Amino acid sequence: MAVIQPFSSEQERALINMRQRYDAWIEAERELYSMPYDLRRKKVGEYEYLYEIFDRSGNGKSLGAWDDEKQTQLKAYKAEKSALKERRDGARDALGESSRIARALRLPLLSAEAGPILREADRRSLLGSHLLVVGTNAMAAYALEAAGTFRDVPDETEDFDLAWTADEPEDGTQLWDMLKAVDPTFTINTEREFQARNSKAYEVELLVAPSRIETLAGKDRPRPVPLPEQEWLLPGRRVDQVVPCRDGSPARIVAPDPRWFALHKLWLGAQAKRDPLKRRKDSVQGAALLDAIAEAMPHYPLDGAFVDGLPSELIAFWDEWLRHRE
User: Fold this and answer.
1) What average pLDDT does this structure show over 163-187?
2) How far from 309 is each of 23, 229, 230, CA to CA, in Å?
3) What percent of the chain has pLDDT over 70?
4) Residue 5, strand partner residues
5) Non-local CB neighbours of 264 within 8 Å, separated by 6+ positions
6) DSSP string of 182-227?
7) What is the pLDDT of residues 258-292, one digit of tens each?
């Protein structure tokens, strides 16, 4: 039996509409995020100034003494922000309708807890450039890439794995700021500094390849331990899909090349030190994903050029999968 149940035409149409509406919404969100938090006319002593406000507490800086030019600047800012909010809100309403339809059509779903994290990362332009989804949650994106639903394959957990993949060194605490913006109750697990946990015990784990650890700012958190096997998730062509969540909201997932992800999962399933329950899940997911690639993802060829690029640690798992297919 094929591992993928193909989507119906109605399901495909719902996904296309949801993606188009998500793209319109996130574009407006990113433009709003790039604007100053607020601009205000402010009196200090006997004089008035135009102030840029940074946060809800009213912290800010002066942009200069108030005059006709500053008045024009403030008016233009308010008009632009109002227009963006109107565009964002209209796109959000249409997007909400699309994602509720997608959920009702029994499409692959992402956990409700992961959705806000992914949307905030995307709003801050971190998703895909700095962060990849590398855990079980990525399976929903791979299902959409294969245009079908996995049969009898675990596709959701109560934690969330992200990989840091920035090419260039970053400053500040942008990852930690992103998590705290989603939920201010997030704290770092002092015994596992690569893990953040909120008041509902939802865990976010950060992973990183040795080649990328130096691009994570020294003050940023969580603090991952470099793992050589994470290098396997960097090459190839990434998957980029908008997935409905269980609460009816949408979220964008950018995940590693499915061929490399599948073999990485098979490798994890063979690690004796790993939790036996997780090992079984990894093995099932890895084998099913390779089957799905062979069945429904011709744009990810399982050919000689791909195999020639595999490290020796993964060749045995590739050969075992080929024997299973025969």
Assistant:
1) 97
2) 34, 15, 15
3) 99
4) 149
5) 229, 232, 233, 256, 286, 314
6) H-TT-EE-TT-TTEEE-TT--EEEEEE-GGGGGGS-TT-SS-PPP-
7) 999 999 999 999 999 999 988 999 999 999 999 99
* Element holding 64 (H helix, E strand): strand 60-65
C-alpha to C-alpha distance for 19 and 125, rounded to whole angstroms: 17
Distance separating alpha carbons of residues 243 and 204, to the nearest angstrom: 19
Q: In what order do the strands lie in the sheet with 47-53?
A: 38-44, 47-53, 60-65
Is this structure's pTM higher than 0.90? yes
164 closest CA partner among 155, 176, 180, 182? 176
What DSSP string runs through 5-18?
EEPPHHHHHHHHHH
CA-derived radius of gyration, the chain: 23
d(Cα 325, Cα 287) in Å, to the nearest integer?
Answer: 10
Position 158 confidence tier, pLDDT thresholds 50, 70, 90:
confident
**Is 70 exceeded by the pLDDT of residue 156?**
no
Residue 215 CB contacts under 8 Å (≥ 6 apart), including other chains? 164, 166, 167, 168, 169, 170
Length of the chain: 326
Per-residue DSSP letters for 209-275? -GGGGGGS-TT-SS-PPP-GGGGGGSSS--EEEEEEBTTS-EEEEEE--HHHHHHHHHHHHT-TTS-
